[in-house]
Amino acid sequence: MAEAVTHSQTDKPTFYITTPIYYPNDKLHIGHSYTTVAADAVARYKRLRGYDVMFLTGTDEHGQKIQLRAQEAGKPVMEFLDEIIAWIRDLWDRLDISYDDFIRTTEPRHTKVVEEIFERLIDQGDIYLGDYEGWYCTPCESFWAERELVDGKCPDCGREVKFVKEQSYFFRMSKYVDRLLEYYEQHPDFIQPESRKNEMINNFIKPGLQDLCVSRTSFDWGIHVRRDPKHVVYVWLDALTNYITAIGYGSDDPALRAKFERYWPADVHFIGKEIVRFHVIYWPIILMALGLPLPKKVYGHGFLLMKDGKMSKSKGNVIDPKLLIERYGSDAIRYFLLREIPFGQDGVFTPEALVERLNFDLANDLGNLIHRTAAMLHRFCGGEVPAPAAREAVDQALVDLALSAVPDMEAHMEELQFSLALQDIWRVIRAANKYIDDTAPWALNREGNRDRLGTVMYTLCEVIRIITILLQPFLPRATQRVFEQYNLTPEETAWETLREFGVIRPGRNVAEGEPLFPRLDVAEEIKALEALTGARAGAQTTAAEAQASAGQAKSEAAPAADSGDQVVAAAAPERANPADHGAPAPAEGAEHKPQITIDTFSQVELRVGQIREAERIPKADKLLKLQIDLGDEIRQVVSGIAQYYEPEQLIGQKVVVVTNLKPVKLRGVQSNGMILAASQDGHLRLVTVPEDMPNGAVVK
Ligand code: ME8
């Protein structure tokens, strides 16, 4: 039974956050973990900020799909469900998900209230009995109007739909549309990201909101309508109400009813973008009919994609999160998910990106800072935090940066921009590593300059204290280890201490400790991850392809890759073989090139260009002649991409142009540069740039 509110909680402000309740028709994958990890980071952050947080997750256990899966498994439905729920709870434990409650829609606290709600809505005329005719997608449990189908298939999952006709109960949605639109207007932050609001209004509300079918008679695994038990409550009405039944709505127990009063309305529902419609149209309308306040925010985040598009069992590209956690630890997976993909946008999971994040960010930047500092305290200061002397400019600069990162990180967390919040913290981590190099404590020690050494080492310990406090929502394990290693007390690690510098009292012991995150062998890990994910080598290529297939561009530049040879030039005139004019340089099985310095790399001038014109070159079936807008000039470039793109597809694309290549003639046509593309196994995709980047912008 759900816990009631205790007295000590009542003087804190509340924060109620939810994840979708997942279908336990199968084990969950890394995409489900993404939503849950994001919600957990917010829940932890809010608790640290002094909120009484209610963090709810759970499972959506009714419907035909579940019934069929249990039958296939040859098990009674409840037994089938119990096993998967145990697996899911174990996953959340391994990922350090700090949920406060886990609702199962088969629990009496839910089913009883749904039955009552249904009766009430019939009585008040919001639900009526009618005839249903339409197209039904069993896997998505969604009904679609004929005009909504795409090539006669489900617009969400692309699978077959079937025509059904049966008596059903309907929810009179149209009655509430004006109030809903008014709510959107008065609460501009209700639907996030903003772009999803227009999608909802234009695609679903403006064409005329259909009444929603809220019961079925063709299966019986669900909550039965009390007065008409051959009807089972259609799964969305059942599912959405979990957000209120879990916290005590409709309970007979006064303590639970008080709990509902305390936490409702929810501060935010986290969901994937495919179920925004249910949460920002149907759910608010159901709540209006019940006379309840609406949630403050619904955040529809993007998808985690694999190189060949969306994850799905049928494609065989689903990653088991438990295998990843086992290999890398929960902190690493949490960090990767929240750092790599700007919340709200789609992102691609590639083994290379994961290994790079873990090696560069966690092992090198963060792990090194903690480990180097502790090691130096042992070598130069007897393992103790020394007392600081007067600060010099270099110290003050780091102090200022660390203190200013705090409000930046807080602002980004409030906006639910986890990746940016992490970048705020990483700016400090990188600056602290540079500070070690600049101040060279080993030299200060050699010179016997104890005052300077004390200031530098103390400053580092304080910076570590600050970044560790900030990192807690993301890395719950590593941060606890650092607190223990640096012997930091709860008073020294409270959020309020982040406004000041100089909190640690000198003289305490710091343990030398083990590295927080191991540095991974890139080749070995990529091989292992490919075995886990069924992915092939070639992160840059595959990431580009997956994004292209999902029709989404990443908003962040891809992390610097050491496998840069996968990104190839789409016209490399100076290397063009006379027999193979302008064809892309080979990527498949490309050898690694010798290392170069940053100076050598910086001799290449790369700029953003927009393709204004594209045409074929007679008698050259691989070549296209492009006119590219570089902001201050239009460049003509001949590119070997004619077999991959139709000229008209290219108009308007923002690409990366090498602008300081010596001009050459290809088939008699002058080419003054080349554009970048990724290529693998006979596929080629241009490297594109987000639209808001101006033409001529430097790429580095
Ligand atoms: O829709 N990338 O359950 P579900 C990111 N029971 N997030 C993903 C993802 C991916 N590739 N795949 C799944 C249901 N998700 C209903 C919800 S709520 C009242 C009822 C996440 O098991 C994302 O949050 O299909 C998405 O909305 C959710 O899992 C869908 O989970």
Summary, kept brief:
The chain has 700 residues and is α+β, with helices and mostly antiparallel strands. 41% of the residues lie in helices and 18% in strands.
Please estimate the helix content: 40-55%
Radius of gyration: 29 Å
- Overall domain count: 3
CATH superfamily label of the largest domain: HUPs
Spans of at least 5 consecutive residues whose pLDDT stays below 50 are 535-591
Mean pLDDT: 87
> What's the CATH architecture of the largest domain?
3-Layer(aba) Sandwich
Indicate the CATH class of the largest domain: Alpha Beta
N-end to C-end Cα span: 57 Å
Report the portion of residues in β strands. 15-25%
Helix/strand structural class: alpha+beta
Give the overall form.
Answer: globular
Instruction: Say what the CATH topology of the largest domain is.
Output: Rossmann fold
Number of helices: 22
Query: How many individual β-strands?
Result: 25
| Small molecules held by this entry | ligand ME8
The major sheet is characterized as: 8 strands, antiparallel
List the helices and strands and how they pair.
Layout (H helix, E strand, L loop, with lengths): L13 E9 L7 H19 L3 E8 L4 H10 L3 H18 L6 E4 L3 H16 L3 E11 L4 E3 L17 E10 L5 H10 L4 E2 L2 H11 L6 E2 L1 E2 L15 E2 L1 H6 L1 H4 L8 H10 L4 E5 L3 H15 L7 E4 L2 E3 L2 E2 L10 H8 L1 H11 L6 E2 L2 H31 L11 H22 L3 H22 L1 H7 L2 H22 L4 H10 L36 H12 L5 H12 L16 E3 L28 H4 L4 E12 L2 E10 L4 E6 L7 H4 L3 E5 L5 E3 L2 E3 L2 E7 L2 E4 L11 E2 L1
Parallel strand pairs: 1-2, 1-11, 2-3, 7-12, 11-12, 13-15
Antiparallel strand pairs: 4-5, 4-6, 6-8, 9-10, 13-14, 16-23, 17-18, 17-20, 17-25, 18-19, 20-23, 21-22, 23-24
Helix pairs in contact: 2-3, 6-10, 11-12, 12-13, 13-15, 13-17, 13-19, 14-15, 14-17, 15-17, 16-17, 17-18
Bound molecules: ligand ME8.
The site of ligand ME8 has 19 residues, from β1, α1, α7 and β11.
